[in-house]
Amino acid sequence: MSILPIVTYNDPVLREKSSPVKENTAEIQKLIDDMFETMYNGQGVGLAAPQIGVSLRLFVTDSDPFISDEDQETDFGPMVFVNPEIISKGQETSSFDEGCLSIPGLREPVTRPETIKIRFQDRNFEHQEMEISGWLSRIFQHEYDHIEGVLFIDYLGSFRKRLIRSKLQLVESGKAPAEYPLVPKKELIS
After folding, report:
1. Helices and strands (H and E) in the chain: how many
2. What CA–CA distances, in Å, run from 10 to 6, 13, 185?
3. CA dist., res. 167 & res. 181, Å (int)
4. Cα angle at 49 between 30 and 105, to 5 degrees?
5. Chain centre distance of CA 3
6. Helix, strand or coil for residue 35?
């Protein structure tokens, strides 16, 4: 397994709608292993393929780090989502400070539906359908946004976006501190 560098928010791949994964191959399975390794190395709970520069509808999650009380059961543990879809969203919402490995050092409140119904293929490319809530629902929606070309900062109002502009410029300049490898900043063509 390999730890892959993560692209930052200004990389065009993060703004593309990703392509479907067509078949289960050895390369896809290695990519999944590398994505888990990369996610854990960055102390993340989710990682989408576009975040490592691969425009495919694929992401991995592990919501268990959020489960800390002895009286709470484990959520779902490590999961793979291939070609996921959101079928429906519940009416009840909640807000939480989200962060993103592609935007190191920034956390902002994002409001999302508490419960969603999803359809996807698992690591073995078996079709699954389930209703999820709690941490897994939030992580799923954040990663799903990545394969749709959406970042969590897109949910912020214009005033809040102005306030975080300097932090985003730090990320864009390649000077944002991160405990994991980032893709080097591409030089702008003049």
Report:
1. 3, 7
2. 12, 9, 9
3. 18
4. 120
5. 16
6. helix
Pick the closest to residue 51 from 24, 79, 31 (CA basis): 31
Beta strands in the chain (DSSP E): 46-48, 58-62, 78-89, 93-100, 103-113, 115-121, 127-133
162 close to 84: Cβ distance less than 8 angstroms: no
Tokens of 72: 């709470």
Least confident of 115-129, 144-158, 172-186: 172-186
Burial tier of 3 (Cβ tally within 10 Å: 0-12, 13-18, 19+): middle
The predicted-structure confidence for 3-60, as pLDDT tens digits, reads as follows: 999 999 889 999 999 999 999 999 999 999 999 999 999 999 999 999 999 999 999 9
The amino acid occupying position 19 is: S
Point out the residues that are catalytic: 143
Residues 6+ apart with CB under 8 A from 162: none
CA nearest neighbour of 143 among 3, 27, 14: 14
Nearest in space to 105 (alpha carbons), one of 159, 176, 55:
176
CB count within 10 Å of CB 69 equals 6
Q: Residue 97 phi/psi, 5° resolution?
A: -75, 110
> What is the enclosing helix (H) or strand (E) of 164?
helix 158-172
Level-2 CATH architecture, domain 12-172 = Alpha-Beta Complex (3.90)
